[in-house]
Amino acid sequence: MDRGHAEKPLRDAMVGATFHAIILDQFQRLRDGDPHFYMNRFSGAVLDEIHNTTLAHVIRRNSDIGDELPDNVFRVKP
Fold this sequence. Notes:
- By secondary structure, the chain is an all-alpha fold.
- Helix content is about 45%, strand content about 0%.
- The chain contains 4 helices and no strands.
């Protein structure tokens, strides 16, 4: 087993320190290399609204699923 799968998840995370570092690095490279990255195009109230929007909000606005959807759609309750 590789180290990444053996680590305990970080606080409020689904991955440990190794995968956290890899994912963080990849997203920073994608952001820094994208001239159309949203934070360079929006500001003020619009940027605040974007930052406060979750995938659950998007799904609820575009479907009839209603309140059945959990706020964090990436976590499965056992």
